[in-house]
Amino acid sequence: MNLTLYSNPMSRGRIARWMLEEIGEPYHVEWLDYHAGMKSDDYLAINPMGKVPAINHDGMIVTETAAICAYLADAFPAAALAPAPTDPARGAYYRWLFFAAGPLEAAITNRALGFITPADKEAMAGYGSYDRVIDVLEAAITDRTYLAGNRFSAADVYVGSQIGFGLMFGTVPQRPAFEAYFRTLSARPAYSRAAALDDAEIAAQSATT
What we know:
By secondary structure, the chain is α+β, with helices and mostly antiparallel strands. It has nine helices and four strands, in the order E-H-E-H-E-E-H-H-H-H-H-H-H.
């Protein structure tokens, strides 16, 4: 098996790294900078968007972080990171993965850029408003440890990472439900391993510049 992660330690590649650590299978990391690395012809052949993360699993290229999480969960079923197709939790699993990749990502990005959807145009935006998205997300994790049934899944890796980044950078409000949810997830050994590996690469890169 050949499994390669293309990443940068200060990117959404940290989410894919956490997912890989949860799976527990061997993998290799190719580090790319935001200029020559991600915009090189070799990498653009892998991801024409010129961004990370991406993975190559035995020749299967997958980009987009939520897609990577979903793909890896299905490719390595022994890790039990996705509800079975017949499990009633499968619906919630897909729902929150794509909620975070769609409405949440769009709402947070637009707000960070200073774009506020006019009230009379919210229906055009898809996500409606930032406040609505945040309230829906808060309700999804209130009094619940995990998003899909009563088991940790790839949905928690992706949504939890979005919440963790948001709490760190101030793009998600400091609400008790968000803090409790991420506190539980960030206590997982795989999360700690992934963070330590990426942080070590940041330190190594800093030492050479």
